[in-house]
Amino acid sequence: MKRRNFLRGSSLLLSSSILGSNLAYAKKPMVVGSAGRSEEKKPVGIAVTAPSTVGINERFSLGIRVLTNPFNSKWIPRWQRTQSTVDGPFNESSRGIHYIENVLPGWEGTVNISGNEGYRGLNSYSFSEGKGPYQFDKRPVRRLEGFSFTTPGIKYINVVDPVTGITGLSNPIVVEGSAPKERLFWGELHCHSFFGDGIRTPEELQSFARDESFLDIFALTDHVEALSDAQWNYFREVCNTFDEPGKFVSFNGGEWTSAQYGHHNFIYPGNEGPILRCTDPDNDTLEKLYASAKKYGALIIANHPASAGWGFDWMKGHDPEVERLVEVYSNGGSYEMPSGPGHDFPTRKVKNPSPGNYTVDGLKKGFRLGMIGTGDVHDGRPGDSLHALQKSPESYKDILEDGLMGVWAGQLTRQSVFNALWNRRVYGTTNNRTWLKFSINGQPMGSEFSTTGKLNIKVEAASSLNIQRVELIKEGEVVQYFEPGKMQMVWDPKGESLRKDTWYYVRLIMDNENLAWSSPVWVNRE
To answer: How far apart are CA 171 and CA 463, in angstroms?
Structure first.
């Protein structure tokens, strides 16, 4: 029997946060000191979350948070909490990071809820009812049950505060005519606790991922060189306690943190797996890390590949049997390819890049890597970072918002999700929950197949943002593009007859330089 999760309240939240994409803060958000002295906090936005894929008439939950301007949050004992609070000696980061909150400390207003054709569910909700994730939590954070759509199609749900007129729009909900054979889930596989160089305890991070940023999938991948064997066992116990098939997938893993060979996350498929430290003789080289991964069934992820100063170099090693994924985006910026003509996103640039070590450079070397977005979270908010608002330290002045990982899997279980990760059925975004499918001859992103015929390429997408441009990228070069200028699109790029082995992926460019990248499809000539 699983132990009871001590941070879990009666009100839980579901996946698909859209913070950072749909909510417009003031240009200079108010951040107050830990004493909390400021003008009265007022609503400035509403975050609305829903599952990305459901069947017709399938009942689902809706997550709602009413937000205010971000502020530093004080720490008090857990059993006395009325809100999410971390700001004390126990959780002070070695990097000087403080916990920042953005949900109203208390609010009892009523919101109106509506959806497009076929919507069934609540028409209004008062936050004077229920409570947030903590035992005495009065914040306007709720998971509401009993929603469905009676017609198929791409749907959205609106939540409005009738007093201020503030509106929150959900992520797109793709309603299929029958139960979906595969579903789109959202995850974060790169996060640090106060045991390493972040803030908050493992329990608090797991709880935030599940109950406040509404992730489906999470892995606390701290710098394992900072952990003792006993602490590793504690991390695994917490992870295994939070994992709940059908509700929340939590993976055991860590970050192998080598100054010589670069940083690589390892993820285990189940409850067990040893700690893999680069400071241990058995795992002090990439070759040994890959061997251990094979021995214990782990998956390896190449972290922030173009970030200078972390020792990352594609020439130092790669094993296609276990290194299956790469971070195309994290809070350090876009690691896709160097900035240049047709690819210049000032708000997404890596500030100190390492030429020749971008994701595209690895793909050009023949490495078959699926692309994911991550947070590399150090601020205690996996999936919903406010990193960019940290005032210190100097090394954090260029930190951006987190990325997210979309995963196409059959079920929300460790086995199903791990298989999807292994098969590269994944994509990355800049913290937006854009629904994306990319296929060639019916083969989905992450696939490898052979053919002698013409290639039939298809891109389908839906977002809560306007999709300004979709680019088809072949072997690292944009070869076709489409400019829909709306929130939903289907595009069939002009196909070609295959002359040699090749690979393609797509990049979506949306409002405010929000991006999404599919994993490639590799096509071999028979």
So the answer is: 7
Sorted by where each starts, the structural domains of the chain and their CATH numbers stand as 45-181 (2.60.40.10), 185-433 (3.20.20.140), 434-526 (2.60.40.10)
Cβ neighbourhood burial of 146 (10 Å; 0-12, 13-18, 19+): exposed
Task: Give the Å distances, CA to CA, from 47 to 20, 167, 304.
Answer: 10, 9, 28
Better-predicted residue by pLDDT, 482 or 194: 482
Please report the pLDDT score of residue 360 as a whole number.
Answer: 97
Question: What is the band of 9 on the pLDDT scale with cuts at 50, 70, 90?
Answer: very low
Q: With contact defined as beta carbons under 8 Å apart, do 180 and 437 qualify?
A: no
What pLDDT score does 17 carry? 30
- In tens, the pLDDT along 203-226 reads 999 999 999 999 999 999 999 999
Give the whole-angstrom CA distance, residue 103 versus residue 84: 9
What is the rounded distance in angstroms from the CA atom of residue 383 to the CA atom of residue 431?
A: 8
Q: Enter the tokens of residue 193.
A: 């606790």
Residue 6 CA to residue 245 CA, distance in Å, equals: 18
Query: What confidence tier does 486 reach under pLDDT thresholds 50, 70, 90?
Result: very high
Q: How far is CA 399 from CA 68, 196, 349, in A?
A: 22, 18, 10
Q: Say which amino acid occupies 408.
A: W
Specify whether the CB–CB gap between 190 and 327 falls below 8 A.
yes
Please, are residues 68 and 102 in contact by the beta-carbon 8 Å criterion? yes
- The backbone torsions φ and ψ at residue 184, rounded to the nearest 5 degrees and listed phi first, read -95, 120
Whole-number average pLDDT of the chain: 89
| Residue percentage of the chain with pLDDT more than 90 | 75
Q: How confident is the model at residue 526 (pLDDT cuts 50, 70, 90)?
A: confident
DSSP, residue by residue, 122-188: -SEEETTSS--SSTT--SSEEEEEEEEESS-EEE-EEEE-TTT--EEEPPPEEEESS--SSEEEEEE
Rounded CA separation 54/60 (Å): 8
C-alpha–C-alpha distance, residues 99 and 71, integer Å: 9
